[in-house]
Amino acid sequence: MTDAKLKAPRGTFDVLAEDACARSAIEQRARAVLGSAGYERIETPAFESTELFARGVGESTDIVRKEMFTFEDAGGRSLTLRPEGTAPVCRAYVEHGMHKRRQPVKLWYLSSFFRHERAQAGRYRQFWQVGAEALGSDDPAVDAESIALLWTLLDELEVREVRLRLSSLGSLGARAAYRERLQAHLRAHSDELSGEVRSRIELNPLRAFDSEHPGTRAVMAHAPRLLDELDSEDAEHFAQVRALLDAAGVTYEVDPTLVRGLDYYTRTVFEFTSDALGAQSGVGGGGRYDGLVQELGGPPTPGMGWAAGIERLMLAGTPPPAAPEAVELFVALDGSERNLQAAAFTLLSEARSAGLSAQMDLGGRSLKGQLGHASALGARFIATVGAEGVLLRDVQSREESQLPADAVVHAVLRGHHAL
RNA sequence: GUGGGCGUAGCUCAGCUGGUAGAGCUCCUGGUUGUGGUCCAGGCGGUCGUGGGUUCGAGCCCCAUCGCUCACCCCA
Q: How far apart, in Å, do the first and last CA atoms of chain A sit?
């Protein structure tokens, strides 16, 4: 390491050439899949009022309790780099009066998010998510469509070994009542639980379902299950979602122990995992959040959405073939005189005005070096500007012709279209 | 926050029982070549993560520290 003082901060990374291609390929797919379903692009600020996340995501979540990048601005306002995308989108929905539009309002984003966690494979402090949110309808068809769209996107990105788990958390009221019953069950068996789970009974009892601890698993095996206790409306809603997914050919497994890390979820929740990933096996997930918009000060508005991690999609998906930018014309200099460079520069801008992709040497290389460079770029034509005029070479056919400078672009265009 | 693994050139890595730093790739120059792709030669590039210690002598041994990475946890 030369002078390793300045490095990207822990958990962050630079996106370089090949990765940049893979990322834009993912973005193009997302735009195609979501755009054709009527989702509109939205971008929200990289930071928001801290209160938005405290209220929206939930005070009891790990995200709010210990993972937010929070700072004060010069005016003493508490701001936070967005740790997730749903609360900001809901804030924008309220702020811009989108409840006056035709419902549901369907929005998608691809943005970076920030969480102060220890980085590992597929988990970073600044990471990117593609997400989709549908606000303003509690129709089960919204849930099914949303899930099916992520299903399609994962399929198009050729994400390997995908599994979809699905469940329902019921309405907020039912969920709160259930939570108390589950806590009662856990407390009754607290001496059989792992210390970890025991200490989280009050804060996040649903987590107990995820434990690997044998004693805890035994206790959870006969714990009450939320899915068995849905009220008739919620049960009917869930049944409809399932029926529609079946109709769309989306395969899933119902997992009553599926829990999500954010407080705002109600009714439908789901998660896509890939066994091709390491410990961070979730590629994307989401669910319904019928209380969130109101929680943020808006009118009672149901919502449904998901997010998928770009870095995880890249790990579990099939990277698109790297297609370097084609170079149609490379302009080389045979000599170092100023007027040659000027002539080459004129030719270069003429070529670009004509719509050709064109490059010239910017590194003061020898002629041999320039030709090597042109070759490495895969240039289709090479124009060598010399004192005698311009020598245009068709790299594929190896034909060469000596031309006046102002005839070069025309010749390239003609040769190009002849292909 | 807690563990395991790893830090030698821009990249991938050698470096013996401690003797004072190397290869390949990339990049640049020259030669060869149908003006490039092959081949040949040369060159640029490292206070061996950092700081101590042991030793006549440390890339190698010891201690500390920082960084990267994987996992716990959590989630996308």
A: 48
Residue of A43 and A209 predicted with greater confidence? A43
Check whether residue A323 has its CB closer than 7 Å to nucleic acid strand B. Answer: no
Is any atom of strand B within 7 angstroms of residue A362's beta carbon? no
Asked if strand B comes closer than 7 Å to A262 Cβ, the answer is: yes
Examine the domain organization and report whether A312 and A334 are in the same domain: no
CB < 7 A to strand B: residues 109-148, chain A: 115, 117-124, 127, 129
Q: Which residue is nearest to nucleotide B74 (CA to C1')?
A: A62
As for the ipTM of the complex, it is 0.87
Helices (H), A161-231: 172-188, 195-199, 214-221
Domain that holds residue A135: 17-174+230-316
- pLDDT for A373 equals 92
**CA A134, CA A143: separation in Å to the nearest integer?**
9
Does strand B come within 7 Å of the CB of A418?
A: no
Q: Does any domain span residue A192?
A: no
**pLDDT score for A129:** 97
Q: Which residue is nearest to nucleotide B49 (CA to C1')?
A: A1
What is the CATH classification number for the domain harbouring A266?
Answer: 3.30.930.10
Task: Work out the pLDDT band at A5, boundaries 50, 70, 90.
Answer: low
Question: Could you give the number of structural domains in chain A?
Answer: 2
